[in-house]
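Sample pair:
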Amino acid sequence: MKKKSISAKISIYTFLCFFSVLVIYPIFLVLQNSFKNKLYISTEPFAWPNAESFVGLQNYIVGLTKIHFFKSILYSLFITAFSVLAIVVFCSMAAWYIIRVRNKVTKLIYYLFILSMVVPFQMVMYTMTKTANVLHLDNYIGIVVLYLGFGSGMAVFMFTGYVNSIPKELEEAAMIDGCNPFNMFFLVLFPVMKPIVISVAILDAMWVWNDFLLPYLVIGTKYRTIPVAIQYLKSGYGSVDYGHLMATIVVALIPIVIFYFACQKYLIEGIVAGAVKG
């Protein structure tokens, strides 16, 4: 039995290592080619940079200059930070209300949130773009409202599962101590919800930071986020300097990767707790 157990563990670890390599290798390939001349990227994409193909930081300097990187990253940081903040705050409060005030209205609201997860973005993108234009949401501040709407379904679903696992006695004790609903939520419940808050924040930050279609449709070229700015590395005839492209992709990955690794220990705990049936 011990030999079988050891063999099973070795097989699992071997499979996981192989799968990890499959996931990491494309990222490594992008990093490797970001230091090569564009001609060698096309002819020798899998080869290490050598004396002829290596261009140092030239791809990074030229690529970041072309897309006005620092202006674009400020828009991306603003939109991502405030969108995630809005989703976390408003959806956690909505989930708390849905769980603690159980009636037909809150059940209907909950199912509407769940239904919004089923509707594909492509079905509503044209009407949404027109509505955003009419309501003057077609700017880097207004798009935060749109992200709140599109991100609320999954966030409410996860928050309701976690709130359902919090004992009511905690809230009753806070009420006895004189807390009003506002203080009770933000001073008592919100700190307890830290794992699921960080999990939702990670998932939504990765989504908003990497999203291309919504910013492209709503705010276009006026307020270019990083994904929108990168696609403008193409020339008028469709040719692409892949050296510049890969260099900008590498730099664009750094902030969200740092955020993920800083918060990853809470991710699994929060997702598991958020999946509890409410």
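Residues 231 and 237 are 13 Å apart (CA to CA).
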